[in-house]
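Researcher: First entry.
Model:
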Amino acid sequence: MPSEAPTYLAELAYTYELAGKKSEAAETFVLAANKAPGQVELQLNAAQALMNAKQSGRAEPLLKRVEALEPNHYRLHAVRAGLARSNRQNQAALREYELALQGMPPSGPEGVLYPIALRLDLAQLYRDAGESEKAGSEAEAARS
């Protein structure tokens, strides 16, 4: 049935996100990801949607799939950074944000604001850790 193809399910999940229906978006993204376990972006979108729906505990199997396919994918590190940060594992979050930024392509599909947001998150973590010089450096990189 075409309406259950991963591409259609991902579009539906995105529509749920736009409508602010975080739980429905997460469930639909997970369904799409499970139907296409080899599609890295679907796994990452599902993991991010689970985090947005406050169900981050369910994201790990999806992230493990990505890790098996593309262990250095920048979004894998960005999602892991967000998970670590939400669990107050600041050192792990710092490391993952740095890896995400190092592996980010010059023009990612997320647009120009994505790397800025990652740098600002990283700067805030450095600020919280009392590393004001590194925080300032990341904030400046985000501005430029």
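Researcher: Second entry.
Model:
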Amino acid sequence: MASITFAEAAKLCQDELVSGLIENIITVNPFYQVFPFDSIEGNGLTYNREDVLGDVQVAGVGATITAKAATTFTSVTSVLTSILGDAEVNGLVQATQSPDTDQTAQQIASKTKTASRKYQDMLINGTGAGDEFLGLLGLVPVAQKVATGATGKNLGFEDLDTLLHLVVSKDGQVDYMLFPARTIRSFKALLRGLGGASVNEVVEMPNGTRIMAYEGVPIFRNDYIPVNQAKGGQANCTTILAGVLDDGSRKVGVTGLTAKNAYGLAVEPVGVHQSKDERIWRVKWYCGLALFSQLGIAAADGIRN
């Protein structure tokens, strides 16, 4: 009699299953670790920026005072939007397919991760249309952009110096620079080209990891910054950003916004589906973005490497 085949034996034995799920959708963004959030009442936060200062004059004894122009302001409102999605799990699936990995917990965790990724994407690329808030790339005023020519240019130290000098709202302090991975490699090539220059200038993050720095300013890799932007005849340009994080004063830099009475990501049990054997859990986040001072951010677009 022939021996039992491997295929037949396999029917009586299951392969070992690793509990949980190995993440295979990852976008690098360590900046998110230090990015602040401010909770607000209502659906929006309104703040006033200086537009034109009132004038003064230098005058001698008996001179007529003509400096009477008033200060003018620009009123800006940053509003909250909703990032949300439903996790629905069939009752039979939950009851029979959850010995190693809880199906409901996995679906909720996945929705939460997607919501976080959506915010990180809008933080950079938000359009300000279709219920999206305006992201950092759209918030940089023209006067706060480093000139890189009609068709852009390769990264240079002078561009980084100019970028840092444009950020003045915190008395010249700069809290971050954001580079795509490609431009970080170009920055390292610049350092190596100096011949013996140290490439080990780093700052330590709150979680103990170390981030490469320039002039003491941490350079955060951000995979959400697109590298296929057009600049003149060039189609593969990108942008580097620099700026300050708001310090709680609501005057100097950028901060995330979230609802005071519903802070951060929330998971809400909706209940059983009306006509299906499914239980629904809603993942939601009421959030936004505010840039208080336009002098708290700067950008160099048209970077070709």
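Model: Note on the second entry: DSSP finds six helices and 14 strands in the chain.
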